[in-house]
Amino acid sequence: MVIISQDIMQQFQNLMETIDEPLKKTFENLHQGYPHETLVRFLKARDGNVPKAHKMLVDCLNWRIQNEIDNILAKPIVPAEFYRGVRDSQLIGMSGYTKEGRPVIAVGVGLSTYEKASIHYYVQSHIQINEYRDRIILPAATKKFERHISTCVKVLDMTGLKIAQLSQLKLLTVISSIDDLNYPEKTDNYYIVNAPYIFSACWKVVRPLLQERTRKKIQVLSGCGKDDLLKIMDYESLPHFCRREGSGSSRYSARSGDDDCFSLDHTFHQELYKYINQQAEAIELPAPIKHRSFHVDFPEPDPDDRKIAETIESECQKLSHQNGMANKLDDLTIKEDNGERK
C-alpha cells in the first residue's frame, strides 16, 4: 500500500505551481475543487514516485488541451438515432449508488458488439461518460450524501462473452489506456458477474500480470452477484442483469427503458444526452452540428496493458484450438470512419 506523506505532497504541489497557465486552467476542470485529492490519485497511480506522478499529470493535462476534452460535453453524437445505435452496441450505464454514496457503473462486457459506429465514436462516448461522471454525477453525490465522493464502483457483466470478441481487443485496449493515463484511481472496486468458462480461463493467466493494487480491486462473484452486491447497495441500485438468478443476464432480462441502465431510454442516458445537447446550444454554433465523430489522440498502450492483451489473445487461441474451432483468428480489426477495416 502506497503511503502519501506530507513531504511527498509538498514536493508534488511545488512542482505543480511551476506549470503554465493553460495547464493550470484545465487542471481546475480536472480536480473540480479538490486539487489535493487529485494529486493523491496520480501519486497512487505511480506508487508515490513524485517525478513520475508529475509527468503523468502534466501529460494528462496536455492531452486534455490538445484534444479539447474540457469541451467534449458540448459535442453531441448526432443524430439521436445514430447515438442510440452507439448505446445499443457499447453497453454501459449507471444503475444507482452504493450505500456509501458511490455511483454504480454497469458495463455489459460480453454483449457489447461495437459494430454500429467507428472506434472514434465509441472513444468519444466513453470519455463523455467519464467527464459527466466527474463533473456532474460525483459533485451531485457529494452534495446528496454530505461527504466528498470522488470514485465509483463498476459491475462488469460477462454474459455472452465469446472467443470471437477477440476482435474488440484493440478498442478495449485504447479505452483502458485512456482511463489508466487520464482518469487514474477513479474506480474503487470491479465486480465481475455472470462469468462464463472463457472468462475463467483467461482470468487464470491474466490475474498474475496485474499490479497488486489492481488485483485487490477485482472480485469475481458467483452467478449474477446479487447476494454479494446487496451487501454494498440497495436492490434499487442493482444493475438489471444482477436482479434475478437464472434470468439475470442482460440478454434474457426484460429490458425496459426504466430498468435497463444500458438503454438510451434510461434516466441516466436521457439526462446525459440532454446535458450534452444543452451545452452545445449554449456555445451558439454558427451552423448545425454535423454527423461526425470527435477524434481524440489514442495513447500508446502501457507495456503492462499490451502484455495483458497479448496474453488474452494467446489464451483465446489455445481455447479455440482445444474446442476444435476452425475459424481462424485474424489480425485485430476495428471499423474505421470510412467503413474500411485496418
TrEMBL record:
Q: Which domain of life is it from?
A: Eukaryota
- Protein name, please? Uncharacterized protein
The record lists the organism as Arctium lappa
